[in-house]
Specification:
Elements lengths: L1 E6 L8 E5 L13 H11 L9 E4 L2 E5 L8 H16 L5 E5 L9 H13 L15 E6 L2 H29 L7 H14 L3 E5 L1 H6 L3 H7 L7 E7 L8 E12 L19 H15 L5 E11 L10 E4 L5 E4 L6 H11 L7 E6 L3 H7 L4 E5 L2 H14 L3 E3 L4 H5 L8 E2 L8 H10 L8 E5 L5 E2 L2 E2 L4 H9 L5
Parallel strand pairs: 1-6, 2-4, 2-5, 5-6, 9-10, 9-13, 12-16, 13-17, 14-15
Antiparallel strand pairs: 3-4, 7-8, 8-10, 11-12, 14-17, 18-19
The structure holds ligand BES, manganese (II) ion (MN) and zinc ion (ZN).
Length: 475
């Protein structure tokens, strides 16, 4: 996707997206564009400018943003995606976005670019003869000020979108193309391109370092596990250290507690948490954010075989705490446990993990929100703020003492399965909290319902976490 900013006068007969808010339906289309005004007046009365409505007239796609007073980042993303979807049916090699019809506020440029990237993404590397779509998008603004601002926002957005597309590609790769070692190779290549320090541990190093929980999930696998440690700004002094942790299960069969076959193919997406944090790391480096970022990914597939972990097995995690594995399909929390405890080494100001952790999260929040849980309200509030800016919605779920009681084990320090039905997203997060270094602010994103949609990785969260890191101040 290439973008450019152009003067209104050069607007010709190409396809043009024109956003419109209800309050300013009439006055919006005045500046310098008599011809646009004429066209709009033709459909004007029939077009409500209602949120997500699209009206086509000649080469114009008018898209409704609803009431200006109710406008949000989320709505801008959604409405533009709707408009672009309509426009995409014409297979344009280029199109334009007219922005003088709305009051262009700070951040809108980024959001619109984000919507474009999301709508134009496709996973086609395995389709014979298909070239990656190279669309050119021209933005039209009316003032010099708007142009300056937009230029900055678009160049920022390009880097975030590049990282999000890269994360989407990783998410979409099937397990025969992406096992733990291959995921680590992708991380290494990225590290090289963005001048990061990357260390990868295989089975031997994990055994030496006693990563018993990650190893137990890998036990049924033919392939080696990988633990990826990526550092951005490793040797810079006086920068705040933050730690990202991702679940990198390259395929989740459930293990001995085998999953049913319906939608089992979607378990190739069980490494989307890893893809997300790796993508964010890439964007942080591309944008030269002033932080020291440590990204940890625990990766393996979760298989059923004659060497798989069995329900009732007791394992010892990196922290030294023992876990009774009552369900081998609750593997995400196991691989994350070791990584979260290991994060202590870096003494981070905060730890943020992302994981497709529970089916329960997708039941309760659907494809609309990521579940957000954690031990520090200040950190969670910052995340909510970032979320409202990037239009990627999160919903906080509870985390309390009761959730811990439900995981008491008769023979180990904790069990990986709650005895009490319901609240699965909270109990899973509570399990993670047990392994988070003492007194470290920590937040957990459960992206099970939102990491993919219609069998495609969404790239959810890259923009959100970059927004958080960009404005980082200690909680
Ligand atoms: N990767 C799954 C969670 C998942 C399931 C995400 C479906 C998206 C769609 C995770 O490893 C898992 O299997 N969780 C179990 C936990 C249970 C055994 C306590 C679940 O959610 O059923
Ligand atoms: Mn599972
Ligand atoms: Zn899983």
């Amino acid at each position: 996707m290439k973008v450019s900013i152009k003067k209104l006068q050069s607007l010709k007969n190409e396809l043009v997206l024109v956003p419109v808010v209800q309050e300013k339906k009439k006055v919006a289309l005045n500046k310098n564009t008599a011809f646009l005004k004429k066209d709009f007046s033709k459909i004007g009365n029939g077009f409500s400018a209602q949120y997500k409505s699209v009206a086509l007239h000649k080469n114009f796609f008018f898209i409704g943003l609803g009431e200006e007073s109710n406008l949000s980042s989320y709505k801008i993303l959604q409405a533009f995606q709707k408009g672009i979807q309509a426009l995409k049916n014409n297979n344009p090699s280029q199109f334009s976005i007219y922005l003088s019809s709305i009051d262009l506020k700070e951040g809108y440029g980024k959001l619109i670019a984000q919507a474009c990237a999301q709508s134009f993404y496709s996973f086609n590397q395995f389709k014979t003869g298909q070239k990656p779509s190279k669309s050119q998008i021209n933005f039209f603004v009316s003032s010099k000020d708007e142009e300056e601002n937009l230029k900055k926002e678009l160049s920022f957005a390009q880097k975030i979108n590049g990282a999000a597309d890269w994360a989407r590609d990783l998410g979409n790769l099937p397990a025969n193309e992406l096992n733990a070692q291959k995921l680590a190779e992708h991380a290494k290549t990225m590290a090289k391109n963005f001048k990061l320090v990357c260390t990868v541990w295989g089975k031997k190093e994990l055994q030496k370092n006693k990563f018993g929980a990650l190893l137990s999930v890998n036990k049924g696998s033919y392939d080696d596990p990988a633990f990826i440690i990526l550092e951005y700004n490793k040797d810079k002094k006086n920068l705040p250290t933050l730690c990202l942790v991702g679940k990198g299960i390259t395929f989740d069969t459930g293990g001995s507690n085998l999953k049913p076959s319906k939608n089992l193919d979607e378990m190739k997406f069980d490494m989307c948490g890893a893809a997300l944090v790796l993508g964010v790391t890439q964007a942080a480096a591309a944008l030269h954010l002033p932080i020291h970022l440590v990204t940890l990914v625990s990766s393996t597939d979760n298989r059923i075989s004659n060497t798989s972990t069995l329900p009732s097995d007791i394992i010892t995690s990196y922290s030294g705490k023992t876990i009774e594995v009552l369900n081998t399909d609750a593997e995400g929390r196991l691989v994350l446990a070791d990584a979260l405890s290991y994060a202590e080494k870096f003494k981070p100001q905060a730890i943020i993990d992302a994981a497709t952790l529970t089916g329960a999260c997708s039941v309760s929040l659907g494809p609309w929100f990521a579940g957000l849980l954690g031990n520090d309200e200040k950190l969670l509030n910052k995340i909510k703020q970032a979320s409202s800016k990037t239009g990627e919605k999160v919903w906080q779920l509870p985390l309390s003492e009761e959730h811990m009681e439900a995981m008491q084990s008769q023979c180990a320090d904790i069990s990986n399965l709650s005895k009490i039905p319901g609240g699965g997203t909270s109990t899973a997060a509570k399990f993670l909290e047990f392994f988070v270094p003492q007194k470290t602010p920590w937040a957990h994103f459960d992206i099970a319902g939102i990491a993919w949609a219609n069998k495609q990785a969404t790239g959810f969260g890259v923009a959100l976490l970059v927004e958080l890191l960009q404005n980082w101040k200690q909680t």
